[in-house]
Design goal:
The complex is a heterodimer of chains A (388) and B (394).
Chain A (H helix, E strand, L loop, with lengths): L1 H17 L1 H17 L12 E7 L4 H12 L3 E6 L3 H9 L5 E5 L3 H6 L4 E8 L3 H30 L3 H8 L2 E8 L6 H34 L11 H31 L7 H23 L7 H16 L11 H8 L2 H13 L9 H32 L1
Parallel strand pairs in A: 1-2, 1-3
Antiparallel strand pairs in A: 3-4
Helix pairs in contact in A: 1-9, 2-8, 2-9, 8-9, 8-10, 8-11, 8-13, 9-10, 10-13, 10-14, 13-14
Chain B lengths: L9 H14 L2 H20 L8 E7 L4 H12 L3 E7 L2 H9 L5 E5 L3 H6 L4 E8 L3 H30 L1 H9 L3 E8 L7 H30 L3 H7 L4 H30 L8 H25 L3 H13 L1 H4 L11 H8 L2 H13 L5 H21 L3 H6 L8
Parallel strand pairs in B: 1-2, 1-3
Antiparallel strand pairs in B: 3-4
Helix pairs in contact in B: 1-10, 2-8, 2-10, 3-6, 8-10, 8-11, 8-12, 10-11, 11-12, 11-15, 11-16, 15-16
The chains are: A alpha/beta (388), B alpha/beta (394).
């Protein structure tokens, strides 16, 4: 049995490395995607949102506010327009994303100790653009306002601190943990990398099985697999997993370094955690491979399912808000558990006990898909016996 | 069938294609079943357009009336709920590492005492920003809860303060900002995100099915017979074949628009005709991409791998999750080559932004350029169809 197993492992590895189509997916795509996918997010945080200023006051103070706005790292003042009409047209044509309007009498109001307003018009079509531009404007105006405030209180000899406490006696201080700069790449890419392992593995296995079936149909010479269904399943499993263990090393040692993602645990721990992840993916792949008639059919299904898996894995949309039927589907995907536990370990530094639930669920899924594959293989064997 | 002229040309290819589709389950699956399943999935996933009852923990070191009312206020907020009362920050942090909470609120000792003595106080919200989207939602609702509680306290203290304090308050905040939200006053992104996902799914299927339909003729060595059915005309061969898929996908595209506008409730403030034209151009543009890919890669699986790369990563580059302005030059260049980017831009202009039709003309024209490029390639296919060197490549 052991000899059969080793024979099968060798046969499968041979099939992977002899087939350029499989190599493109299981090696090429893994490397390519891990460099291409982070590309749109590579600047992590959106800065320098284009903005125009309509200054009706044209005073020393209004010009100072315009300068301060431009100095904010979130905003870039791209134009100064004489009126709202022109500024609005710039937004409509997509040249700017917002307008700061300083009305006439702005400086006078401030000098006479009155309250005054400036108006911010921000395009809210895109969430990030709106958030960054509005945050930049609010922060700039607040900075200017605080400066004026301090000098007013100084002039009267009153306590500024006391007044501030009276205005707002209870404040919330927000602390961001694990992704302090709220980087977008740090948020998305680590999860997508794990998904990439799952999806390329599924396509690869689909292709390997499809090729084998097509070659057998065309009566081409193929190296026969030895032993019973279990030994065959195990042979393919070990072959694919050994290749993907290298990918895991590549992700955490190379990709994380290049894109500067935080890694708060050892690579060895990640190996141990992701072992049942790979195992369940390989077994699920072998189960699904039974349904694909030709080697190409698997690709369409799996590109589609990769979008689905991202949406339902819980990192882009909270699991608490999902309908139960979607949550139930997501529980059958190894990526759901792999991403949930893998992110907590790699990005947040969770200990092994803290991801034990996910780890056990992936073992459970492995067993579940092993059973399905085994039943399916036996069923198919019986069908082909009956046919011949 | 020699001499039977009625049996060759556009219609003959069209009928031949219908027969092919009936023989292979994968075509109807990929053209109707999976796209419609995707729309249903998105519908289900975002049926709650805003998250609610996200679990957070509190670390209450004060144990006062104030801290208890704060905890109650957090719990009654619709977005978050207090799932755990942790004894100390270490326990709360462990809960976060176990994935049980998105944030915890730290209430320090003697908070109530400090506030009653007029010293002011602060509470700290620790948020898990590795989960950026849920994290920021939780963080802003914590902010809202604390502001409400604080406002209640201020009214009480001001009533005790008297005239001098009123005068001091009037000096605060000399310059305020008046916020105007353009185009999307409710700041509702979930409808929009869900709407953008639908065409993303659609383009995957259009591209893949086109490549599959064209490429399999070469793989299965039926290209010559295909050309013969078209009466030797490469134009009739390609257009007759693709017409079937174009009609099917246009139908799916219209269903998609109906679901987005009526089902998701996305407002249609611009022109519906432009939106429909855009959807049809999107489908044609991805069919053109399919032609280009099959032309460049004679091997079907390489062409399919290339299309999975093109369509599978499109959403990240389309500027919906992360805007185009923030992308590096290479990212922007790639993004501009994707019909999806232009379609989603047009989509926003015509739904949310109430833009004049002229604004969407460039997007339509760019998509038309993609279609034209594919169309120009058609005559070059003839050599592929007759040259057996291009056949049989898996």
């Amino acid at each position: 049995m052991i000899r059969n197993l080793f024979c099968n492992i060798f046969t499968e590895l041979n099939a992977i490395f002899r087939d350029p189509g499989v190599l493109i997916i299981m090696v090429g795509a893994v490397v390519l995607y891990s460099f291409v996918y982070p590309l749109p997010y590579s600047s992590e945080v959106l800065k320098q949102v284009p903005l125009s200023i309509v200054d009706h006051d044209n005073s020393l103070l209004s010009r100072q506010l315009a300068r301060m706005t431009d100095a904010s790292e979130l905003i870039q003042v791209v134009s100064r327009d004489p009126d709202m009409e022109q500024a609005r047209r710039k937004i409509e044509s997509g040249k700017s994303s917002g307008i700061l309007v300083i009305s006439e009498g702005f400086e006078k109001d401030v000098l006479q100790g009155r309250k005054t307003y400036v108006s911010a018009y921000v395009d809210a079509t895109y969430f990030l653009v709106y958030r960054q531009a509005m945050t930049g404007l609010v922060m700039t105006v607040r900075t200017m306002s605080a400066g004026i405030e301090v000098s007013r209180f100084k002039a009267r000899g009153w306590s500024h601190e006391k007044a501030l406490i009276d205005r707002s006696s209870l404040n919330l201080v927000s602390r961001s943990l694990f992704n302090p700069h709220m980087g977008y790449a740090t948020y998305i890419v680590p999860a997508v990398l794990l998904l990439l392992l799952q999806q390329t593995m599924l396509i690869g296995i689909g292709m390997l099985s499809g090729t084998r079936r097509e070659q057998l149909q065309e009566k081409k010479a193929v190296i026969p697999l030895q032993g019973g269904p279990l030994v065959r399943i195990l042979g393919r499993t070990i072959a694919c997993m050994s290749l993907y263990l290298i990918h895991i090393y590549f992700f955490y040692k190379v990709v994380y370094q290049i894109w500067d993602f935080p890694l708060r645990t050892g690579v060895l721990d990640m190996f141990v955690f992701l072992l049942p992840f790979l195992l369940s993916v390989v077994l699920m792949g072998q189960f699904l491979a039974g349904f694909f008639k030709s080697r190409e059919s698997s690709i369409i299904m799996i590109v589609w399912s990769s979008m689905v898996a991202v949406l339902i894995s819980g990192f882009s949309w909270p699991v608490e808000t999902m309908p139960h039927w979607i949550r139930a589907i997501s529980m059958l995907l190894p990526s759901t558990w792999g991403i949930s536990g893998g992110l907590r370990m790699a990005q947040m530094g969770a200990s092994f006990e803290q991801v034990m639930d996910e780890w056990l669920c992936m073992w459970g899924l492995s067993f579940f898909y092993l059973l399905l594959t085994w039943i399916w293989t036996r069923f198919m064997a019986r069908v082909s016996e009956n046919n011949s | 069938m020699p001499g039977n002229k009625g049996r060759s040309g556009f219609l003959a290819v069209f009928t031949r294609e219908l027969l092919r589709i009936r023989q292979h389950a994968r075509y109807p699956l990929a053209m109707f079943v999976f796209p419609l399943l995707s729309f249903i999935l998105i519908w289900g996933l975002f049926s709650e357009p805003y998250p609610h009852e996200l679990p957070v923990a509190v670390v209450d070191l004060d144990h006062s009336k104030l801290s208890r009312s704060l905890i109650r206020a957090v719990d009654t907020s619709p977005v978050i709920r207090v799932a755990f009362q942790a004894a100390d920050p270490v326990e709360a942090r462990n809960l976060m590492l176990e994935g049980a909470i998105y944030a915890w609120l730290h209430i320090p000792q003697s908070l109530e005492k400090d506030i009653l003595e007029g010293k002011g106080g602060e509470v700290i919200g620790f948020t898990n920003t590795q989960m950026l989207l849920p994290g920021s939602i939780v963080s802003s609702s914590l902010q809202a809860v604390v502001s409400t509680i604080s406002a209640g306290l201020n009214i009480r203290s001001r009533m005790q303060g008297g005239a001098m304090q009123e005068k001091a308050m009037s000096l605060l905040d000399p310059v305020k900002i008046d916020r105007h939200v353009l185009f999307n006053p409710q700041l509702n992104y979930m409808y929009f995100l869900s709407a953008a996902l639908c065409p993303t799914f659609l383009q995957i299927f259009v591209l893949m099915v086109t490549v599959m339909a064209l490429g399999s003729e070469f793989k299965n060595r039926t290209a010559e017979q295909w050309l013969k059915t078209a009466g030797g005309s490469v134009w009739w061969a390609v257009t007759g074949k693709l017409a079937v898929y174009f009609l099917c996908f246009s139908l799916v595209g219209l269903i998609m628009l109906t679901i987005i506008l009526l089902g998701f409730g996305v407002p249609l403030r611009g022109s519906g005709a432009v939106l429909i034209a855009g959807t049809i151009f999107l489908i044609l543009a991805y069919m053109a991409y399919g032609l280009i890919l099959v032309f460049i890669f004679p091997s079907l699986r390489v062409a399919l791998s290339a299309s999975s790369f093109l369509s599978g990563t499109a959403f990240a580059f389309a500027g919906i999750t992360f805007p185009l302005e923030g992308m590096p030059v290479l990212g922007k260049a790639w993004s501009s080559l994707l019909p999806l980017t232009h379609y989603l831009h047009l989509f926003q202009e015509q739904t949310l932004r109430q833009a004049p039709i002229s604004v969407s003309v460039p997007d339509l024209l760019i998509m038309l350029v993609f279609v034209g490029t594919g169309y120009c390639l058609i005559p070059l296919f003839k050599s592929h169809m007759t040259d057996s060197r291009y056949w049989g490549k898996a």
